[in-house]
Design brief:
alpha/beta; Rossmann fold; two-stranded parallel ribbon; 13 helices; 9 strands; globular
Length: 292
């Protein structure tokens, strides 16, 4: 039995869809806080169980009879992420899960300036200490996030950021498909597995590609981090989120997202989607906004 948490979200939901092309619905379980949101899976014959990362007992029951568990990282903005993951890992242990797959991140590390990377590293430590077979899916930074990470470039003509560095922008759709491929392997790899696109351009390089697409100059500039935070907050953005993004840019500048690995290409059996596909969506969104 394969059990998936977070299947009502975009990432693990897509993984569940890929799995259903290869295994019968009777061999799949999805766990969600609100079973009503998983109706589309229930309608296909998938077992839906209630579970919450803040309720270890409920998770243990939800993970019963699981051979392989795909555990999505918590996106609770106010919760204690590591504690929630500890609950899930302990529940997997108590339920006797055969192999845990965890959606980690390429830049996982206790020393990263990006807070989620610290949480991912701590969760990988929990898995390593639990005595379970486990695989950490260290996905590259999702390319669709460029929609907001590039800032208001269409209005200002400038991509202004507090730091720059290479990032292996990876399509979330590809990461979801790769997770399904790993879940279906007879002998999956154990420990961290890096799943990224094959190239890692900088924001400055992306800005040049953006300018080529729109047919006019778009400049790239580095801004003092304090001024960048002050400007974003002054423009009405939530300070907590601004500082969250600052950590991401600082991590990129320090090389935490620089590695490009061939594993994704191997798992997909084709070339992964390019960051240029994501830039096309960025330009299309800007054009649609301008025409309103």
């Amino acid at each position: 039995m394969i059990t998936i948490t977070g299947a009502t979200g975009a990432l693990n939901g897509a993984t569940a869809d890929h799995l259903l092309r290869h295994v019968p619905a009777s061999e799949l379980v999805v766990v969600t806080r609100d079973p009503a949101r998983a109706a589309r899976f229930a309608e296909r014959g998938v077992t839906v169980r209630q579970g919450d990362y803040d309720d270890q007992g409920a998770l243990t029951a939800a993970f019963a009879d699981t051979d392989r568990l795909l555990l999505v990282s918590s996106n609770d903005p106010t919760g204690d992420t590591v504690r929630q993951h500890r609950n899930a890992v302990q529940a997997a242990t108590d339920a006797g899960v055969g192999h845990v797959f965890y959606t980690s991140h390429q830049g996982a590390g206790a020393g990263s300036p990006f807070v989620p990377a610290q949480h991912h590293a701590a969760t990988e430590d929990l898995l390593a200490d639990a005595g379970l077979r486990w695989t950490a899916l260290r996905n590259g930074f999702y390319a669709h996030s460029l929609q907001w990470l590039l800032g208001p470039w269409a209005e200002t003509g400038t991509v202004a950021l507090p730091a720059d560095g290479p990032v292996s922008w990876t399509a979330r759709e590809d990461a979801a498909e790769a997770a399904a491929a790993l879940l279906l392997q007879e002998t999956p790899p154990e420990g961290p597995v890096t799943i990224t696109a094959p190239a890692a351009p900088t924001f400055a390089e992306l800005t040049d590609r953006l300018a080529e697409r729109v047919g006019h100059d778009v400049r790239f500039t580095l801004v003092d981090p304090h001024r960048w935070v002050e400007g974003a907050v002054g423009a009405g953005q939530d300070e907590r989120m601004v500082r969250f993004l600052l950590g991401m840019h600082q991590a990129a500048g320090a090389g935490w997202f620089a590695g490009a690995d061939p594993t994704l290409r191997t798992l997909l059996g084709r070339e992964p989607r390019s960051v240029d596909d994501a830039l096309g969506a960025v330009v299309a969104a800007a054009s649609a906004s301008a025409s309103r």
